[in-house]
Amino acid sequence: MAPITEVEGRRIALSNLDKVLYPATGFTKGELLHYYATTAGVLLAHLYNRPVSFLRFPDGVDGEPFFAKNVPPGTPSWVKTAEVPRSDGPARQILVQDLPTLMWAANLVTEFHTPQWQADSPGMADRLVFDLDPGAPADVVACCEVALWLRERLAADELHARVKTSGSKGLHLLVPLVPTPSERVSAYAKELARQAEADRPDLVVHRMTRSLRPGKVFVDHSQNSAKKTTAAPYTVRARTEPTVSTPVTWEEVERCEHARDLVFLAGDIAGRLARYGDLMGPLINLNRAGRLPS
Description:
By secondary structure, this protein is of the alpha+beta class.
């Protein structure tokens, strides 16, 4: 029987704490839960009021992961949910609003993914996102070059981008916005991706076609669709190591010379937060939100 832990007055069964989730490093489920508990202050701010999708890997990163959007069976009655529109009719998803919900969800062994809109205004994006995905032999160093191009292009429209590692191979650029229809954000993002390819055809591709991507950076603009989600800042990823989708400074992007320069593990995040604070803070500060050009 799983031990029962009380978190802010809620009783949660935390199971298999010694289970190794990342065989390459020996990182256990207990260590994963500890990471989420100690990072809750910043992570919750980015999950708040956003319907959460889970990428679950309960058998570890060598097991079969699966993506879950619906409220799972056995969800405690105190976990908040939100109705979200879907093409086949409305459904309900989890809202991770507090530490007990975060720890209950983390016990399911999850990555946290969120849309670009909040639960009370579905389809009205308050952020723009680019997912920079390198095609081998390109790596995150090439993504940094593309990220700097996009930063300058966005700045020309008075939009100020923040950047984080994807926790996988690439980078995510995010821009805080005054709530804007997702369709308009998607069209704007697609046009900037097209412009990036036109300016740097040697480096950038804006279409998803796999055959076009080797040696280039795919500027994925599709995650601005109201139906899509992106890995949340500070989520642990189901990779070989317990990598984290980590906010980074533009100075780190500018001086990146090797792919390993922008790889951060769960154990690195506390020190980075102590040094930098939440580099993604402007995403949740409405005073920093920009407007798309007319």
